[in-house]
Amino acid sequence: MSISPKMALLEEYALVARALSAPARLMLLEQLAQSERRVEALAEKTGLTVANCSQHLQQLRRVGLVTSRRDGKAIIYRLTDARTLTLLGILGDVAERNLAQVGEILRGLSNGEDAPEPINRDELAARLTEGSVTVLDVRPADEFADAHIPGALNMAVTELDKFLTDLDRNTEIVAYCRGPYCIYAHQAVAFLRKNGFNARRLDGGLPEWREDGRAIRSTS
Amino acid sequence: MSISPKMALLEEYALVARALSAPARLMLLEQLAQSERRVEALAEKTGLTVANCSQHLQQLRRVGLVTSRRDGKAIIYRLTDARTLTLLGILGDVAERNLAQVGEILRGLSNGEDAPEPINRDELAARLTEGSVTVLDVRPADEFADAHIPGALNMAVTELDKFLTDLDRNTEIVAYCRGPYCIYAHQAVAFLRKNGFNARRLDGGLPEWREDGRAIRSTS
DNA sequence: CTATCATTCAATTATTCGATTGAATGATCT
DNA sequence: AGATCATTCAATCGAATAATTGAATGATAG
């Protein structure tokens, strides 16, 4: 062998890390964590051109993070493996813990107010069966339509102000979005609290909830 | 703000991933997972020049993965956070699962023989108290001297052939090394089995054992 | 069989990264 | 206070990467 197996292994691991080292690809993975999608849909969601999006997807495929299949005229991409979700989550954790910049950005989302600790998924599941909580899915309507936590209301964070009158001020609100890289729930909670609601974030988004093996309401 | 907070966040996460995207830096992190070290020691262990090593360490420091302090004339680096261990472990998992190349390299270490499933750390801990197992630390002697699993014998994989007569053929052998990126234990197990011993790998290396909160024999 | 259309390829440009060299820094120790 | 020595900086080169554009592919649908 020309190089040692040790170096060969490390280079493979480094390839996976490199695949995660572009913001565009992290965005794509976040989207694919919601549900499988065609290239065009991914391009639209992420604001990338279709060609650029395709290139990034192929880099992700080269290291096995995503897989594709054909459905009619479209090529549908999906995450190969749920473990990728864990990897992304911990990457976020490490970044949040080690990079001061990240903490500042997250605090900025709350306009300087102290955000309450997020509620964990076990606790939310228990509260849901009691009916003692309002669950708010603040993702765009099409993603909500794809799949959501049973019983959740859909109010996209961009239009939350129009829905405020529909919300009960006496019930605690739990907002969730796409997962650890998504800031919608942060923004929603900040907005709701400024308007006098008792709101918290869910720890993790829909993909994590699904990965726990919990029930999902979905169209397919 | 010039760019959206969402993009700003993703760029930070991507920075962390990029820091993990060079084999040299993964090697450094593996070393630092054993114990804190000075730049010169790291350079020697990894085969990098001191200057090059220093550069890589600074990239790791920039994203908060390592921290340094001064001790006498030396600058000592260490992992900032044990969570980095988890991140590295899952990165390896994902790579092993998704990249065919990785599986081939790992199989190549066993010379085509089927390697048995590794033993997990809980089980090893139980077997250790029973005394029904020989634990073999196959890392270099200096790393063993730094810290090791109590009761383990040290036989560096490179010199394992000289020690074969010291090993009991009737007791199961469990070999461990630096962790998921280290191939010493793979090699040792393959060699031992070829020579008629009943040997298995430990799942995870010394850093993972320590991270579980288990006892360590160490010099300091 | 052919037209269509989503996706991919190819080629370019600008940028970034890694290794290397030798010099500079700066805290320690005498 | 000054010598020493581990570490870091600065500058360079070669290589690799990301975004962009327009053209090519190739499977489906009619």
Automatic annotation (TrEMBL), chains A, B:
<dbReference type="InterPro" id="IPR011991">
    <property type="entry name" value="ArsR-like_HTH"/>
</dbReference>
<dbReference type="InterPro" id="IPR036388">
    <property type="entry name" value="WH-like_DNA-bd_sf"/>
</dbReference>
<feature type="domain" description="Rhodanese">
    <location>
        <begin position="129"/>
        <end position="218"/>
    </location>
</feature>
<dbReference type="InterPro" id="IPR036873">
    <property type="entry name" value="Rhodanese-like_dom_sf"/>
</dbReference>
<keyword id="KW-0238">DNA-binding</keyword>
<protein>
    <submittedName>
        <fullName>ArsR family transcriptional regulator</fullName>
    </submittedName>
</protein>
<feature type="domain" description="HTH arsR-type">
    <location>
        <begin position="5"/>
        <end position="99"/>
    </location>
</feature>
<dbReference type="Pfam" id="PF01022">
    <property type="entry name" value="HTH_5"/>
</dbReference>
<dbReference type="InterPro" id="IPR001763">
    <property type="entry name" value="Rhodanese-like_dom"/>
</dbReference>
<keyword id="KW-0804">Transcription</keyword>
<dbReference type="InterPro" id="IPR036390">
    <property type="entry name" value="WH_DNA-bd_sf"/>
</dbReference>
<dbReference type="GO" id="GO:0003700">
    <property type="term" value="F:DNA-binding transcription factor activity"/>
</dbReference>
<dbReference type="Pfam" id="PF00581">
    <property type="entry name" value="Rhodanese"/>
</dbReference>
<dbReference type="InterPro" id="IPR051011">
    <property type="entry name" value="Metal_resp_trans_reg"/>
</dbReference>
<dbReference type="GO" id="GO:0003677">
    <property type="term" value="F:DNA binding"/>
</dbReference>
<dbReference type="InterPro" id="IPR001845">
    <property type="entry name" value="HTH_ArsR_DNA-bd_dom"/>
</dbReference>
<keyword id="KW-0805">Transcription regulation</keyword>
